[in-house]
Design a protein that fits this description.
The chain is of the alpha+beta class and 559 residues long. It has helices at residues 18-28, 56-73, 102-120, 139-142, 146-154, 195-205, 267-280, 296-309, 318-329, 339-342, 344-348, 361-369, 377-399, 409-444, 451-492, 498-523, 529-558, and strands at residues 5-8, 11-12, 34-42, 47-54, 89-98, 124-128, 175-179, 184-190, 210-211, 232-233, 240-247, 252-259, 285-291. The chain contains 17 helices and 13 strands.
């Protein structure tokens, strides 16, 4: 199962004392499973924005510890700065990044606030999706009057905090905690130096649009509603804020945007709408610039979008999708774009956890041929399965380019996309199989002196053995699924590549049978005989099915 990832972006009311900032951020780095991504201090605002990411539980632990540290170092009674604030840790938003819903993040936000309120005695208010009152969804409402008004607010029943005491904490103030959507700061580059023209594009695109006028959109009379307030013409993109500005460093005007909900308006759609508006106004979008980090999904969705516009297959590698996105969005016009530094999930990747897949072909073969017991047959089976479905995916992508088959590009794109998904899943199992083997070794090395230690050791061995069965079982499942793509390409793909589909079938069958051997050998040591009987029955059926499917494909290929 893929990891759940959330991002935490606490804002601290200190942006000038490097020593205090360092002490605060060092706390985050002590929590295992959390990665500190960015520290952005501001002297004028006297505020530091920190970004860290990880799985929910360690992120919440790090958030609590860093709020605790800030409370011990920052005295709000002496704080001055340009930015609105009401606490040492002023705000602490949690943001879903991968494989987690907003509803789940809301629960984590409340769990954090409850602990902060009870253990640190800091008043906590919930805002955005975590708000307990409609009016408190807006942070500006919660923070109204800032630190200076907090003492009076806390004395009023309507301002009783969601968590923590309803009394003024002069040193730490109060903290606003939320669950909110990921916000992307994104700039579009234009071939003009005119801020007014850049603003025109921004007003066309942003949700708030522009003030409605009679006749001329620039000089016409402002249209007002029954209450005398100016009416507005909404822009093309919801959940987008934007304005034009001139960047002296680059000598161009940009549209500076905040995308506040990428599920409502994805990055590539905001880019396209700016492109349309610029074209209408005789301008040209020359590229764009991402400020900060983005989730991987943003780049993959953009890559797929632009490939579909070209009527090309989206069943390409993750790396290729990102390359297409970068080129299509012009993300390297001003500065180099390094996916390893700009994509959140890549910042979190640990090469040590996937050492085999990270190797080149020669290194992988050398490691397999060495005197170490891993990688063994299980890892090789998963890799052979990945190669088999990769061949079928290649046939699908080549078929989409065949002359005279232009109207079938979507059909082959779907098959290629399916093949890529199976390939990626099998590649993960290459390292997982070795990890399962190592887990067994580690379990056998546990102490076995006392009866309690023996019981713990026995339980660990059984759990590791079951894992060593489940990983190759999953390899069998995925390799069997790959026959769907392989068979379709042998039957309907480019006939010039039919032999590649045949080789794919040979690989897939080898992967199924190779993994089957690993399942059987590990069941010998498992005490749960009911589980063993069930798994052996299922895998025997799968192995037989692989034989049948391989024969069908080879018959198609050989004629």
């Amino acid at each position: 199962m893929s990891k759940q990832l959330i991002e935490c972006v606490p804002n601290f009311s200190e942006g000038r004392d490097a020593n205090i900032i360092r002490q605060i951020t060092q706390v985050i780095e002590t929590v295992e499973g959390v990665k500190l991504l960015d520290v952005d201090p501001g002297k004028a605002t006297n505020r530091t924005v920190v970004t860290f990411v990880g799985e929910p539980a360690p992120v919440i632990e790090a958030a609590f510890l860093v709020i605790q540290k800030a409370a011990s170092l920052i005295d709000m009674s002496k704080h001055h700065g340009e930015h609105p604030r009401m606490g040492a840790t002023d705000v602490c938003p949690l943001i879903p990044i991968a494989n987690i819903t907003m509803e789940e993040v809301v629960k984590w936000a409340h769990k954090l606030a409850k602990r902060v309120g009870e253990e640190l005695e800091i008043p906590c208010y919930m805002y955005e999706y975590a708000a307990t009152k409609p009016a408190w969804k807006n942070l500006a409402t919660v923070r109204a009057g800032e630190y200076e008004a907090l003492k009076d607010k806390l004395s009023k029943p309507e301002w009783k905090p969601d968590y923590g005491p309803a009394r003024f904490n002069a040193r730490s103030g109060a903290t606003a905690i939320s669950a909110r959507d990921f916000l992307i700061a994104y700039n579009i580059n234009l071939n003009t130096t005119s801020v007014r023209r850049a603003n025109s594009v921004a007003f066309d695109v942003r949700e708030n649009g522009r003030v409605k006028r009679e006749g001329d959109p620039i000089s016409g009379k402002v249209v007002k509603d029954a209450n005398g307030k100016p009416m507005r013409e909404p822009g093309a993109c919801k959940a987008v804020k934007g304005i034009g500005w001139y960047i002296e460093e680059y000598g161009i005007a940009q549209i500076s945007m905040n995308l506040t909900n990428i599920n409502v308006t994805p990055l590539h759609i905001a880019f396209e709408e700016c492109h349309k508006s610029a074209d209408r106004r005789g301008l040209r979008v020359t590229g764009s610039e991402l400020v900060g980090l983005v989730p991987l999904k943003v780049m993959l969705d953009a890559g797929r979008y632009f490939l579909k516009k070209q009527e090309r297959s989206v069943g390409v590698s993750e790396e290729e999708l990102i390359k297409i996105a970068v080129k299509s969005l012009g993300l390297e016009e001003l500065t180099p774009f390094d996916p390893k530094k700009k994509i959140i999930e890549y910042q979190l990747k640990d090469a040590e956890k996937n050492p085999l897949v990270a190797m080149d072909l020669r290194a992988f073969a050398n490691e397999t041929a060495s005197e170490s017991m891993a990688p063994g047959g299980g890892s090789i089976s998963a890799y052979v399965g990945a190669l088999g479905v990769s061949l079928a995916t290649m046939v699908a992508n080549l078929s989409g380019h065949k002359r005279g088959w232009d109207d079938r590009w979507e059909e082959f794109s779907d098959w290629a996309d399916r093949g890529q998904q199976i390939k990626d899943a099998l590649l993960k199992l290459v390292d997982e199989d070795t990890g399962a083997f190592n887990a067994i070794i580690d379990a056998f090395r546990l102490p076995k002196g006392s009866s309690e230690e023996q019981a713990v050791r026995k339980e660990a061995i059984q759990a590791a053995t079951k894992l060593a069965i489940e990983v190759p079982f999953r390899t069998m499942e995925l390799s069997l699924q790959s026959f769907e793509v392989i068979k379709a390409m042998a039957e309907h793909g480019n006939p010039n590549s039919a032999s590649d589909a045949g080789v794919g079938a040979l690989c897939a069958r080898a992967a199924v049978h190779g993994a089957f051997l690993n399942v059987k050998i590990n069941t010998d040591d498992l005490e749960d005989k009911g589980y063993v009987a069930d798994i052996l029955e299922k895998t025997a059926v799968m192995a037989k099915k692989a034989d049948e499917l391989e024969a069908e494909v080879l018959l198609m290929v050989n004629g």
